[in-house]
Amino acid sequence: MKRVVKILAVAALVLYFPVILGFVSADRNKTVCRDIRTEINDSTVNRFISSDELRLAILQKYPGILGKNINDINTENIEHFIEKNPAIENCEVFFTVGGVMHVEVDQKRPVLRVFEDSHTSYYIDEDGEKMPLSAKYTAHVLVANGYIKKLKNRDELFKLAGFISNDEFWRSQIEQIYVNKNGEFILVPRVGDHIVEFGPIDRMEEKFRNLKALYQNGWDAREWNVYKKVSLKYEGQIVCSKAK
Asked: What is the pTM of this model?
């Protein structure tokens, strides 16, 4: 008897789903886009674009979209249009019951602002790609300046900035990367009057490990403003210099 009941239940489900899908399909054919709701997933971190601006951009690009049958709206085209914005990483567009179009966006995350010269400034995002500046929002990120054009490989600058940005300790400690005339790196900390002569990118993790040990275990509170330069250029040692 139980086996018969199970067979009947399965048969009912097999018949039920095509009927329901038919109703949904028929209802969709009659559904029009009645509203657009936008969501910026990381708006508390970056504010390069707002939900209102995104909604307005869609309405200006597709002026007849409200009231249009949802079957006639190409959501992939809308996604591609939105992703052309240099501040947007990706976009997903979909409809829910009732004809509401949802637009969900992730912004790019800058990790570095580069001042290449007095006229050229831009961001580098977490993928190593350039991002233009925004007229309405300034990201509070690590800054790089100096002789940027002296760098033989700018990926080294991104690698150094990425290491700092991805480490909570260094993100709170280092505020600036300066490139000197030799194309080597100098770090400017937030705390203390000293600079850090980092040198080339080689032995990067070892250099940061040694510097962290100095900050946490080597100096007492009075010494933070005594030394003017800390050099990590020499393997196996840290050289601290006082002001002359």
From this structure: 0.78
* 40 CB burial (10 A radius; 0-12, 13-18, 19+): buried
Tokens, residue 223 = 């010494």
Q: Which domain holds residue 180?
A: 110-242
Domain boundary among 46, 77, 107: 107
DSSP 67: T
Cα separation, 200 vs 235, in Å, equals 12
Q: Which of 175, 209, 205 is nearest to 189 (CA)?
A: 175
Q: What is the DSSP letter of 118?
A: S
Give me the phi and psi of 136, to 5 degrees please: -110, -10
Q: What is the pLDDT of residues 11-59, one digit of tens each?
A: 444 444 444 444 444 455 679 999 999 999 876 678 899 999 999 999 9
What count of other Cβ atoms lies within 10 Å of the Cβ of residue 118? 6
How many domains would you assign to the chain? 2
